[in-house]
Amino acid sequence: MAIDTVMEMIKAPISTVFDASQCPVRDVFAHIGDKWASLILQTLGYKPHRFGELKRAIPDISQAMLTGTLRSLQRDGLVHRKVFPTQPPSVEYSLTELGQSLLGPVAALVVWTAEHHGRISEARRQYDSDNPPAKKKVAVG
């Protein structure tokens, strides 16, 4: 899809653009838009990794979340899983050609985030200051 077409879609009222339940952007972003997928894609962008290497490279991800995210990325054709016939079997993950093509857009988002994080943090502080949490009423009796 050409960038001009995407820009026209952005400018149009959402109800005239597409059926939200069939939205291809939503469908893909559901898998690649979370923090774990982007971290895994960035990590595999440097070189292929075995599961344990990925877990060490992203230490705050749980084993279950890493497994699930890798499966999702593999299902989407972004990650290749290669099993080596060793005892016990070892597995290596790498980016496919399609996954490699996603590195540029992910890197652009990372750069944008780094450039604007201060402004976003300040906006959050201001919002929180202007909108303090409601105090809970304590029932007496």
From TrEMBL:
The keyword Transcription appears for this protein: yes
Keyword Transcription regulation on entry: yes
Keywords assigned: DNA-binding, Transcription, Transcription regulation
Superkingdom field: Bacteria
GO MF term list: DNA binding
Residues annotated as domain HTH hxlR-type: 23-121
InterPro entries according to UniProt: HTH_HxlR, WH-like_DNA-bd_sf, WH_DNA-bd_sf
Protein name, as recorded: DNA-binding HxlR family transcriptional regulator
